[in-house]
Amino acid sequence: MTKNLSLYLILGISLVVLISHSANATAQEPSIPSWIKNNAKYWSQGQIEDSDFTKGIEYLINQGIMKIPQTKPNANQSNGIPSWIKNNAKYWSEGQIDDSEFVKGIEYLVSNGVIAVNTVQCDPILWEHVYHPQRLNIIEVCTQVSGTIENIREEPDGDYHIRLALDLEYQDMVNQANVDQQHGDLVLELICQNPVEQQDAIQSCQDFRYIINVPPVGTHVLVTGSYVLDLEHGSWAEIHPVTAIQEILPNGTVSANTATVQKTTNKPQAPSGTLRMDLAEHDYITRGTVQEMTVEVSDGTNPVSGAAVSVHVTYASGDTTKDFSGVTDSNGAFELSWTIGGNSKPGIFQVDIDATKDGYIPAHQTFSFEVVSAS
What CATH number does the domain located at 273-372 have? Predict the structure, then answer.
């Protein structure tokens, strides 16, 4: 018995406009991916379910590859799939009939309510968590592409940066910047996947994670997301942010979208490192002269700018103290100076320093210097 197609959305009127995916000025009509025709063949032979075949048709319509004229559902909807539809799928997959003949069968399924088209959907909440969104020039708010994963790496901004070798029909979506800087691949940016170390990106992913199970290098995948040009990287082309990555299986079916949102409200951002401090000062100084200090804050490797520094100085007498505060500059330095009174008690002066910055484990350190009498 022929199974009914799974209904994803109730389709009242279906009107699909051909969309060009080209990042260049010349528009080119996209071709039908080979895995779609394989899907049609397997479906006609009963090797895959109706729902899997439906996904392929939805993909073609959403991409504008298959144009379905405006149709209205028939009041007398049919629940069965005529045998000639599957025959058409077989003939189409083998090249015995052209696309227009196959489209007639799909029109029949749509107009009779047997198949409903699920439009491509991108999660709009993701744009609320893209840092510096003005750096991205949006070409298409939501689209899909297919290709093979060539490289995966974690970025300090919490994203996965993935290079996708596009299938032939999508290769016009990359530009010269992709060729020069990304081995000719399309860039995929999966935002808020990992702990954020980059300071200007911390706020965007605060209390939010969008978890996508990333398939390994070499996997053939279908990717859903926004098609943009990254103006900070020579305007190379990206899918950014990515809503879903779904594996295209050997039989042509597409795996389920397993992306999930994790809200981590009231949970602190994972520290990206521990602050470390060094102090440059006069180890010995005469009463009545100026003590100059430079507090240097780093993460152990690189200077940390914008760290809040507080300095508390206790004189040798124990009765006098001095307090200073400020923020480290672009070199991770905070400078201060003051005059030690001519009547101050000689001896060891203690310096307590604290440094803090969001995303880092705070640091506290104690230094000392000696004040001597004038000879």
Answer: 2.60.40.1930
